[in-house]
Specification:
Layout (H helix, E strand, L loop, with lengths): L1 E4 L16 H10 L7 E4 L9 H10 L4 H20 L9 H14 L6 H20 L10 E2 L2 E2 L16 H12 L17 H14 L3 H4 L9 E2 L4 E2 L5 E5 L9 E5 L1 H21 L1 H6 L5 E4 L7 E6 L2 E6 L5 H5 L1 E4 L4 E3 L13 H17 L17 H26 L3 H20 L4 H5 L8 H8 L10 H8 L6 H6 L1
Parallel strand pairs: 9-12
Antiparallel strand pairs: 1-2, 3-4, 5-6, 7-8, 9-10, 10-11, 12-13
Helix pairs in contact: 2-3, 6-12, 7-9, 7-13, 13-14
């Protein structure tokens, strides 16, 4: 079996596809009946494998993102191949078969996955079998429900993993890892990294706004109040824009971008982006028919009007999904200007995998300089872009709580009012900025406002004997060099 993913960019340059006439293909693409990222599972005779192909189509019609469909495709492909090895298929699988598959994934295979990692995989399989039941392909789910608990899943309660950076760690990540400087803030002429200004602008947006990587990496120039023609800010102040289609679960929220973050993006636009777009003009013009070409004179009120698939349409920017943002350009009269803030080769918005490669290269570089006296302390695992979001939340929460305490103490309000003010208002503000649907998610950050290791050091600081250590005592007893001075003091 072979797994493929649909995409308009995968079409041959001449547009000829075997078995489909040119008019039929044009109509299919114009109506977008086959969305980009749709998984297609084919057997040895190149026929669609059922019922998985129908389920993938169902996911696409529900509007699932290509990223989600890709994950589900690989999960179900592994399960399908496992069942085939046992002489079964998805429709004839029993509870024993599926529990054996869980055992294989979590214990038996060469590199078992953790029980926590198994949960998303079990969720995908659950949704597949729920759909099979709803479509009457099978009478009921293969596994049992015991007292409301799903025996197929572990049902392990997972706490949100929060890891944040200190200022020293962030600057080390931004300047040394991404921008290619040395730990002592000098220029490293041996640095051969690509687009350091783009990387710095990305992490500044992430840190100062609290946006997720799927949010800040898909942002458009009009959302930051930037003019795509003259590469300057329309308003020198910070900007507020609406985030919707690219937000997690498409949950709308307002995002404030400080002026300093906008200025970092402007530096990237002038130092790197202009040259990348100029080099990509030939590719952009060649692909013009597949792009959403916006009239530069018709921007405003948070909407873009232009030509897509030969039809003039108007889209609200906040409601534009990532795939549409990737192909949105402005015809400036002298060329095509991508509206995406961050662009890569060919003038297109970088894929998530590209940003991951940037992060891994930065981690390798930071590890190389780990022994330098000016290097920051690194965690055991590489930094994630999401750690910048946690850093934003913790710093904002700490600042708001200190500000609330100062205001209440200065007004000499009773303690009950102080507790209400500190425990409620700052958390609600952070919840709104982060886009959390449940306040309990934001409350988790309270545990990380202070570093517990510092408290441990302070609590036991007076318990240690600073005049003598076990190593010094051992040297004296064994008459080793270095123990005489201590013996004399005793």
């Amino acid at each position: 079996m072979e797994l493929f993913f649909t995409g308009r960019s995968r079409l041959p340059a001449d547009g000829n596809v075997s078995g489909i006439s040119q008019p039929e293909l044009a109509q299919l693409l114009a109506r977008r009946l086959v969305p980009d990222g749709l998984p297609v599972l084919l057997d040895s005779a190149m026929r669609p494998v059922e019922p998985l192909s129908s389920w993938f189509r169902h996911l696409a019609l529900l509007g699932r993102s290509p990223k989600t469909m890709r994950k589900y495709a690989y999960v179900t492909l592994r399960l399908h191949e496992f069942l085939a090895g046992r002489g079964r298929d998805l429709l004839s699988a029993t509870e024993s078969d599926l529990l054996e598959y869980r055992l294989l994934r979590t214990r038996v295979q060469a590199e078992p996955i953790s029980r926590v990692t198994w949960e998303p995989e079990a969720t995908a399989i659950n949704r597949l079998y729920d759909w099979l039941v709803s479509e009457q392909r099978i009478p009921r789910s293969p596994w049992r429900q015991l007292r409301g608990r799903d025996t197929f899943r572990n049902s392990i309660p997972r706490d949100m993993r929060i890891r944040h950076m200190t200022l020293e760690q962030y600057l080390y990540f931004r300047d040394v890892g991404l921008a290619g400087m040395r730990p002592d803030a000098t220029v490293d002429p041996s640095f051969r990294g690509r687009s350091p200004h783009r990387s710095r602008a990305g992490v500044e947006l992430a840190l100062l706004t609290g946006m997720r990587v799927g949010e800040w990496s898909t942002i458009l120039l009009p959302e930051l109040g930037l003019d795509p023609v003259v590469n300057q800010a329309i308003d020198p102040k910070g900007v507020v824009f609406r985030l919707a289609a690219c937000a997690k679960y498409e949950r709308p929220r307002d995002v404030y971008v400080p002026r300093s973050a906008v200025e970092t993006v402007l530096i990237y636009m002038r130092m790197e982006r202009t040259h990348v777009v100029a080099a990509a003009q030939r590719t952009l013009i060649k692909r013009r028919a597949d792009l959403f070409v916006v009239d530069v004179q018709q921007q405003g009120r948070g909407k873009l009007r232009g030509v897509l698939d030969g039809v003039t349409v108007t889209h609200t920017i906040a409601d534009m999904p990532m795939l549409l943002r990737r192909i949105t350009v402005v015809d400036t009269g002298v060329g095509l200007e991508p509206l995406a803030v961050f662009v890569g080769a060919g003038g297109q918005m970088p894929q998530p995998s590209t940003w991951d490669k940037v992060r891994w290269r930065a981690w390798d570089r930071m590890r190389t300089h780990a022994g330098h006296p000016d290097a920051a302390v690194l965690p055991s695992n590489p930094w994630l872009y999401h750690d910048l979001r946690h850093t934003f939340a913790l710093r904002l929460l700490m600042f708001l709580m200190h500000k609330a305490v100062e205001g209440v103490v200065g007004s000499e309000l009773p303690m009950a009012t102080l507790i209400d003010h500190v425990a409620a208002n700052p958390l609600l503000e952070v919840q709104r900025r982060m886009g959390h649907s449940n306040p309990s998610t934001t409350y988790v950050y309270l545990r990380y406002l202070k570093d517990p290791m510092q408290d441990v050091d302070a609590a036991f600081a007076e318990w240690t004997d600073h005049d003598a250590s076990y190593s010094e005592i051992a040297r004296h007893v064994m008459r080793l060099p270095g123990g005489e001075s201590h013996a004399t003091q005793r």
